[in-house]
């Protein structure tokens, strides 16, 4: 989707009129906390000032005559100049959960802005208390997988020997933790018929691959 906003102005320089527009505004981004987020804003020639805002607060200004004015190490920029366009790349370093929200590119003219949304997600911890568990024949056991300090709450699934386990065999509960973080507790009920490796997986959009924790369930059919 391309948003084009046009503003013509004849007041900055006497006798000189110019017209410019935002050709491409920023696009939505989802990143892990601690990583960098990147947003681009492209304007046509004739622009004078470009301001980046995060949740309504100005964080970086670019002036055509002198370049970027950076007031924080966390918000920096790169500039790319084409034959008749200019692109400002806003880089948000070491993103935090509180950075989530609206990122706006503005030229300080009425209706001359474009925005996107930043979602900062937190990769928490995931663990199963025991790495191995021995279960007697015909005995049922509950395997507990705990996810702590995530944002948003992770999606939990279970696998055994590289195959997904049916959702009816486990129950997952979610709770709100401190500082906007989430916890999840997933309990798998199992009556093993053989030794198998169980894997608990936790996933959020920003993770390239789900985080996992494993337990080896040793099937004991001895009569002694």
UniProtKB/TrEMBL annotation:
InterPro entries assigned: Ig-like_dom, Ig-like_dom_sf, Ig-like_fold, Ig_I-set, Ig_sub
Annotated Gene3D superfamilies: Immunoglobulins (2.60.40.10)
SMART domains (alphabetical): IG
GO cellular component assignments: bicellular tight junction; cell surface
SUPFAM superfamilies: Immunoglobulin (SSF48726)
PROSITE patterns per the UniProt record, alphabetical: IG_LIKE
PANTHER family per the UniProt record, alphabetical: IMMUNOGLOBULIN SUPERFAMILY MEMBER 5
GO biological process, one term: cell-cell adhesion
Name this protein carries in UniProt: IGSF5 protein
Residue intervals of the Ig-like domain: 14-108, 110-216
């Amino acid at each position: 989707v391309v948003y084009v906003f046009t503003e013509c102005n004849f007041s900055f320089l006497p006798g000189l009129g110019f017209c410019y527009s935002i050709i491409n505004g920023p696009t939505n981004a989802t990143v892990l906390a601690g990583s960098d987020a990147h947003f681009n804003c492209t304007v046509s020639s004739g622009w004078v000032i470009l301001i980046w805002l995060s949740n309504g607060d100005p964080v970086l200004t670019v002036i055509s005559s002198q370049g970027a004015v950076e007031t924080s190490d966390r918000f920096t920029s790169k500039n790319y100049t084409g034959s008749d366009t200019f692109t400002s790349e806003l880089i948000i370093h070491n993103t935090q959960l509180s950075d989530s929200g609206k990122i706006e590119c503005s030229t300080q003219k009425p209706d001359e802005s474009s925005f996107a949304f930043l979602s900062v997600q937190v990769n928490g911890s995931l663990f199963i208390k025991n790495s191995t568990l021995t279960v007697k024949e015909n005995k049922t056991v509950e395997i507990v997988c705990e996810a702590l300090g995530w944002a948003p709450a992770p999606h939990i699934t279970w696998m055994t020997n590289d195959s997904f386990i049916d959702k009816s065999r486990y129950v997952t509960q979610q709770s709100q933790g401190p500082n906007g973080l989430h916890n999840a507790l997933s309990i798998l009920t199992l009556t093993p018929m053989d030794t198998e490796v169980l894997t608990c997986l936790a996933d959020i959009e920003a993770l390239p691959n789900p985080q996992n924790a494993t337990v080896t369930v040793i099937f004991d059919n001895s009569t002694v």
